[in-house]
Amino acid sequence: MDSESSAYSEVILAHYRKEAEEHGKDASSTMRDEITRGREIASVLRVLEFLAARGARVASVLDVGCGNGYLLEVLRRHHPGAALTGLEYTPEMVELGRGRGVAQCAILQGDVRALPFSGAAFDIVVTERCIINVMDRDHQADALREVARVLSPGGHFLCVEAFTDGLTELNRARDELGLPPNEMPYHNLWFDKPWFLDTIARDFEVIDLSVHRDPTLPTPNFLSSHYFVSRVLYPAITNRPLLYNTHLVKFFSILPPMGNYAAIQFYLLQKR
Question: What confidence tens digit (pLDDT) does each residue in 77-122 have?
């Protein structure tokens, strides 16, 4: 590991050690926003249901960057027969995840840039705001190639990561209302959309779920309306900084996704 990689790795470890200490096994770990967290989880579950109904294999699932194991616990309840595996970089999070006692689910400490699994080992890989913690573009590309390597041919990658185009649109809307720009967190490097699509093109096909005209299936902008209400409308009308989980934001959470105002986006990718 080079010195630059070692330096940002220490930043990541320090951040998530603090998360582990402050939030333990709670669902709020790594994401205070209840609606965002809930929709990420619901979207993963819905897509797995959709894939299974269409005959895709969902027998083995790897959650990369599994944190405190919250998603794995939810997956076990909904998929009692699936072989679940978690991988987490931060040792304190690994301990929390193992402490959940999720049945028939190994949780390993490891690095997304060099996954400790054989090729074609999994039907499904999930990342939930994981690869954006790899604070180097070349290393992010390595991570995406590693996901492809461990997927079986035709397997699916449920990619929930953050993108700069959503932040750009959000900040344009904030600027119109006299609000300062939101910033990318210090411990992240969000994907540039053209770079992401070009990088994955060799290994993956993007599955366009919008063609099914099913509002329960997530599209890339699945959080857009929520982010407009919570990060633009709420601070504009209250003249307050961001406050998570307010009654106003929850009231408008029924809105369908419109626009491109959320950095966090959902991509369903299939290995070529």
Answer: 999 999 999 999 999 999 999 999 999 999 999 999 999 999 999 9
Q: Which residue range forms the structural domain that includes residue 86?
A: 3-271
Annotate 116-181 with DSSP letters as a single string: SS-TT-EEEEEEES-GGGS-SHHHHHHHHHHHHHHEEEEEEEEEEEEBHHHHHHHHHHHHHTTPPP
Nearest-5° Cα angle at 126, 123 to 129: 165
Q: How many residues does the chain have?
A: 272
Please give the model's pTM, rounded to 2 decimal places.
Answer: 0.96
Considering its fold, how many domains does the chain have in total?
Answer: 1
Q: By the 8 A CB rule, do 94 and 88 touch?
A: yes
CATH number at residue 8: 3.40.50.150
3-state secondary structure of 68: coil
The phi-psi region of residue 201 (left if phi > 0; otherwise alpha if psi is between -120 and 50; otherwise beta) is alpha
